[in-house]
Design brief:
One of its GO terms (molecular function) is maleylacetate reductase activity. The two termini are 37 Å apart. The chain has 13 helices and eight strands. The protein has two domains: 13-157, Rossmann fold (3-Layer(aba) Sandwich); 160-351, Dehydroquinate synthase-like, alpha domain (Up-down Bundle), CATH 1.20.1090.10. The model has no long low-confidence stretch (mean pLDDT 96). It has helices spanning 24-31, 45-55, 72-84, 96-109, 162-180, 187-209, 214-233, 238-250, 254-268, 274-284, 292-302, 318-328, 339-351, and strands spanning 13-16, 36-39, 59-63, 89-94, 113-117, 128-133, 136-141, 149-152. The longest helix has 23 residues, at 187-209. The chain is an alpha/beta fold. The strands form two sheets. A six-stranded parallel beta sheet has the order 1-8-5-4-2-3, sandwiched between helices. The protein is globular and about 60 Å long. The protein binds nicotinamide-adenine-dinucleotide (NAD). Nicotinamide-adenine-dinucleotide binds next to helix 4, strand 6, helix 5 and helix 9. Nicotinamide-adenine-dinucleotide binds at residues 41, 43-44, 68-69, 94-98, 100, 118-119, 121-123, 126, 128-130, 156-157, 159-160, 164, 168, 171, 231, 247, 254-255.
Length: 359
Amino acid sequence: MIKDFHYFALPIEVYFGVGESNRIKTILQEKGFTSVLVITTPEQEEDGVKLAQQLGSLVCDVYPKAVMHVPVEVANKAIEVAIEKKADCCLALGGGSTIGLAKAIALKTDLPIVAIPTTYAGSEMTTVYGLTENKIKTTGKDLKVLPKVVIYDPELSLTLPATISASSGMNAMAHAIEALYAKDKNPIISMLAIEAVKSLSQALPQIVKNPDDLTARKQATYGAWLAGICLGSVGMAIHHKICHTLGGTFDLPHAQAHAITLAYSIHYNRNADIEAMDRLGDALGVSNREHVGLAIYHLNQSLNIPLALKDIGLPEQGPSEVARIVCDNPYYNPRDYDYEELLDLLSKAYQGLPPVEDK
Ligand code: NAD
């Protein structure tokens, strides 16, 4: 039986398809923008400059200084530039870091965002922004930071290296999975979440085998879009809180931290929401809830993603510090947790041991 529910369907204009990013000039003109600030990372500067050339006089500047986790100093400098250049739109070309910087600008200046995502992180579908100050990452929600237009062009992800594609796709997978057992879950978002899990689990191994496989890229982009809607529509749980802390406090690479930790978070929650976990098991082809976390662990293995948090830079005291920070600021989870339980989860993830005995 369908339970009563309530959620906000977010107003975003979406274009999806190979080559769709070529529409960008017309879209910006139709919206009446005349002073567009192109935002990207130092690594994607060349792409940002090319995009600016394509847009000609519509662009006021290219700002290629986005970095992961949006440090406040970086955000403040970018806000200054947007004001100084009299920008009337932020055009974000890149992954979550770039879109995160555009969101920080929008939060302060009310500038609209147009996003062309090039990873699978999903930030473009959410009202969530993050800022990192003194090694603590805080997040908030504001409709001002939600992009007005999002263009998904799978062709742009072809240059994303296979290893980053794999972990970025598992970051998307984490959004979809936590949506399944969200406090405010609902049948529409759960349906999208299952479709996202299936799309991503099929596409990512293909991409790792052949990063130029445009059909697989399209399927992963589709899964990432759906997972982004999940992230933007319902609340997440302890897994996301742990990963924010790993990123904000230890500057760990966001997508890899998500991919590694996901196997343990799911295993921890395996019996907390039986309906959700059974649906997840079905989508992943696993019949026993005890093995759902292990299936993610094996998927990571097959995608050549590192298996241990210690291998991506978490120091030895990391598990205890993260467990303490997470416990200091309690967050929803379908299963209760305390410091000892989190420490156990994080210690296993630190070592990269299978979440359950692997027979
Ligand atoms: P990222 O944006 O940092 O990108 C990783 C690297 O890949 C960067 O060097 C980038 O320039 C490069 N890159 C991106 N696309 C490329 C492409 N197509 N070809 C070649 N190189 C490419 O990584 P991410 O995982 O997308 O984003 C992580 C950040 O996003 C974190 O700060 C995280 O907190 C945030 N995030 C926020 C939300 C939200 O809703 N607010 C959601 C997800 C992630």
